[in-house]
Amino acid sequence: MEKNNPLVSIIVLNYNAGKLLHNCIESLQKLDYDNIEIIVVDNISTDNSQNECKEKFSNIKLIQNNENIGYCGGNNVGIKQAKGEFILVLNPDTIVESNLISEILTAYRKNGDGLYQPKILSLDNKEILQSTGNMIHIFGFGFARDKGKSDNTKSNEIDSIGYASGTCLFSSRKIFEKLGFFDDDDLDLGWRAKQRGIKSYFVPNIAIYHAESYSLKWSKKKFYWLERNRKYCLKTHYSKETLKKIKSSLWYTEILVWLFYLSKGYVSAKIQAESDLRKNYEFIKKKQIEIENQKTISDLELIKEFPDRIEVPKDV
């Protein structure tokens, strides 16, 4: 039983997700794969959604943090307490199809160790794509491939991608442990994985549905996190030599980013991101050395895979 149907731990991180959390857990109850444990990690929600969920679904394990420790911290708590050989990190504002675990496990067995994601469709309009795999731009932008396009997916071929979306990310416990769990975000995790020869995959024959309204709102806070995480990844994932080689291009990109934030009225978010990076200069320097020492794939090899164009969603 265990060998053919290994335990899969599903980590759902909650913060005031309300009914969305209940709908997510309800969809997990309908999975056609039985050997699972569902762990809800709560970042001190004030809407009581975590307790209501536990009352409704007695088979879930509820972990209540004493403070809001964010996406990475919250998911790491869940992963470390999970018992499964495999881990699924899942947003609380998603609905899954019943074959999610069985099909993604089949893909894992076929392609081996890596980070996996299914097709992500909009819960508001199930014909619209949110992601067919996330990509890493040469200047550190992470973006969802095909976001906003109609779902005309025809191929069922598993596809190598830049990184797997943290909305629904599947891997083995040993891979999470090897990578040191989440450090910054899903972009950082996927980039570090690629540097160590661990690929990310898009599995097109399974889908989940993700609510745009909960976690994808374009706001000052979201733009702050996007820019802060982009610059963090640039400064920690590229070697000093690589950063010197692309310095002039980075300066040009920086001007364009400032102009973009100005046009959107979010200059304060850009300033805050830059301020945070300066405050954490010593930490970033240490992290760059740590990542450099763990690399098995050079920057040059990875850059060849990175696209030089970004797919910007229409609603930005």
What order do the helices and strands come in, and which of them pair?
Elements: E1 8-14, H1 19-28, E2 36-42, H2 49-56, E3 61-64, H3 70-81, E4 86-90, E5 94-96, H4 100-111, E6 115-122, E7 129-131, E8 134-136, E9 142-144, E10 159-161, E11 168-172, H5 173-179, H6 186-195, E12 200-210, H7 212-215, H8 220-237, H9 240-245, H10 247-264, H11 267-279, H12 281-294, H13 299-303
Parallel strand pairs: 1-2, 1-4, 2-3, 6-12
Antiparallel strand pairs: 4-11, 5-12, 6-7, 8-9, 10-12
Helix pairs in contact: 1-2, 6-8, 8-11, 8-12
So what's the CATH class of the largest domain? Alpha Beta
Could you report the average pLDDT, rounded to the nearest whole number? Answer: 93
Described by its quaternary structure, the protein is single chain
Order of helices and strands: EHEHEHEEHEEEEEEHHEHHHHHHH
CATH fold annotation of the largest domain: Spore Coat Polysaccharide Biosynthesis Protein SpsA, Chain A
Question: How is this structure best described in words?
Answer:
The chain is an alpha/beta fold and 316 residues long. It folds into 2 domains: 8-215, Spore Coat Polysaccharide Biosynthesis Protein SpsA, Chain A (Alpha-Beta Complex); 220-303, no CATH class. Helices cover 43% and strands 20% of the residues. The chain is built from 13 helices and 12 strands. The strands form 3 sheets. A 5-stranded mixed sheet has the order 3-2-1-4-11, sandwiched between helices. Strands 5, 6, 7, 10 and 12 form a 5-stranded mixed sheet that branches. Strand 8 and strand 9 form a beta hairpin. Helix 1 packs parallel to helix 2 and helix 8 packs parallel to helix 11. The radius of gyration is 19 Å and the shape is globular. The termini are far apart. The mean pLDDT is 93.
